Amino acid sequence: MTVVIACAGSKRGNYFRAADGTNVNFVGQPRKGRMEFRPDDPSDRQKKSWRDLLEDYNASYAATGWNPFGLSEAYYLYSPKYPWNNVYEALVSKFQAQNVFILSAGWGLIRSSYLTPRYDITFARQADAYKRRDMRSDIYCDFCHLKSIDGERIYLFASQRYLPLFQELTRSMSADRIVFFHGERPSSKSINGCKPIHYPHGDNRTWYYTCAADFSNGRIRC
Question: What are the pLDDT digits (tens) for 161-203?
């Protein structure tokens, strides 16, 4: 079993840094005069994007344990408001880190243990314009750390705005993909072969945290 949950807007980790030590913020629409970039923009290191540097950083950490920027593992980076503030940690505790992945608007489908810097990128329409990513026009080389196994079940906890990214990154997988939804049923095109399951509880904007918590607590069986 694999569990995938969408990222959260609230974060508590550290920033990535430029070569001179300046904090770098990754956003959907960089503003002039600020240290803001998209993940796949050229970095301040020759022939490397910021995404390349983050990969190098994680590879170095895996080999040496050195984490000079103090980056958080992805499952610990996100901090939605109470009572969902520990939902990511609860999923990792229940299903183990290697079976939990984050669907990130900035980075793609990443391991829950992946060292991830603070960023402000989202698909939410109500967010500030500089944070918003457009799946139709913005170019991202999204990670897909998930390697599925035939017959495996992948459970997604995310709003419908994250479905296109999930579909793009998992469409070639032979696993059974199960997506929960709240309110109106997703269109056949958006679920594209996934099994939709209605979850009627919770707030319209935060229901998938409640759904993930119920799943980890064994209150949802499917």
Answer: 999 999 999 988 989 999 999 988 888 777 788 999 999 999 9
Count of domains observed in the chain? 1
In a domain, 22, yes or no: no
User: What's the pTM value of the predicted model, to 2 decimals?
Assistant: 0.95
- Stated as kind and residue range, the H or E segment containing 116 is strand 115-116
Range of the domain at 137: 2-13+72-216
Find, among 52, 56, 101, 55, the residue nearest to 74 by Cα. Answer: 101
| Exposure letters 10-44 (e unless 16+ CB within 10 A, then b) | ebebbbbbbeeeeebbbbbbeeeeeebbbbbeebe
Question: What pLDDT is recorded for position 24?
Answer: 98
Residue 47 covered by a domain: no
C-alpha angle 200/104/44, rounded to 5°?
165
